[in-house]
Amino acid sequence: MVSTPAVADKIDRFAGKVMFMRHALAPGSGDPDNFFIGDCNTQRNLDETGRAQARAIGAKMVAAEIKFSAIYSSYWCRCLETAQLLGVGIVTPFDGLNSFFQNHAQRAPTLAKLRDKLNGLSPSAPATLMVTHYVTIRAITGLSVASGGVVIYDLKTGTARELALS
To answer: Cβ neighbours of residue 53 under 8 Å, at least 6 residues apart?
Structure first.
């Protein structure tokens, strides 16, 4: 099949961009006192509304023909589940996306890992999706988004803007 220029433009319009997505709706704030990163039973997790939200956002990504060169997620269960429910590709856990809210991860080393990852991405490759937390998105882009919110970060310019998908 030969792609027409219009189809190619539609698919490539996010080349050189990172889409930071805040995990879908997980009622509450922070995590319980007995939080353990390897045990979802000790974390604040998605509810059925959050799961439906993640599936709906994924369906919009598929319908918009957004292709990702890679999909990364925080190790938190609510992020991993969000990324998987999107249904847009294989998800790789990455600790540079972990939350430093409540000091479950250290802010400076976490953000240093994320910045290293961003610096290693090709500005001409298809988009990269990173499912993470409010604090991480805010620290990198300066923008605040609700659960399920997406911020497009331009690797060349360092600018960011919100994308309406939820």
So the answer is: 24, 25, 147, 148, 166
CA distance linking residue 11 with residue 156, whole number of Å: 19
Segment 41-96, tens digit of pLDDT? 999 999 999 999 999 999 999 999 999 999 999 999 999 999 999 999 999 999 99
What is the Cα gyration radius of the chain?
16
**Which strands form 91-93's sheet, in the order they lie side by side?**
91-93, 68-73, 127-132, 17-22, 150-154, 160-163
Q: How far apart (Å, rounded) are the C-alpha atoms in residues 161 and 153?
A: 7
